[in-house]
Amino acid sequence: MKLKTVLVAVTAGGVGYVLGTRAGHERFEQIKAKAADLAHSQQAQDAAAKVAGVVKENAAKLPDPVADVVNSAADAVAEAPKTDPSPGTPLP
């Protein structure tokens, strides 16, 4: 059974590699640009702020060390860059 799982994983990886190389670098750049546009859209920013607010509200019910980590993560999401990065800059 384990061999079957490994074989499926290797096959899936091979298929993904072939399809990825066929799409080419140009298509990858198109997909990356669309993802950046989506991530920096006003709707995405509003949704992230809303989720961060709900998370912070519920973090008060958690033990202090956990709440601190959750609040830090929520702050990071809420404070994500609101402008498009310059071309070639990796997204956070």
Question: What does this protein look like?
Answer:
This protein is 77% helix and 0% strand. It is mostly helical.
Helix and strand arrangement:
Elements (H helix, E strand, L loop, with lengths): L1 H38 L2 H18 L4 H15 L14
Helix pairs in contact: 2-3
Straight-line distance between termini: 39 Å
How many helical elements?
Answer: 3
What structural category characterises the helix and strand content?
mainly alpha
Strand content: under 5%
Mean pLDDT: 76
Task: Detail the poorly predicted runs.
Answer: none
Count of individual domains: 2
- As a percent range, the share of helical residues equals over 70%
Instruction: Note the main sheet.
Output: none
The helix/strand order is HHH
Rg is 19 Å
| Cα shape | flat
Could you tell me the number of beta strands? 0
List keywords for this structure.
0% strand; mainly alpha; 92 residues; 3 helices
Could you provide a short overview of the structure?
The chain is mostly helical and 92 residues long. It is 77% helix and 0% strand. It has three helices and no strands.
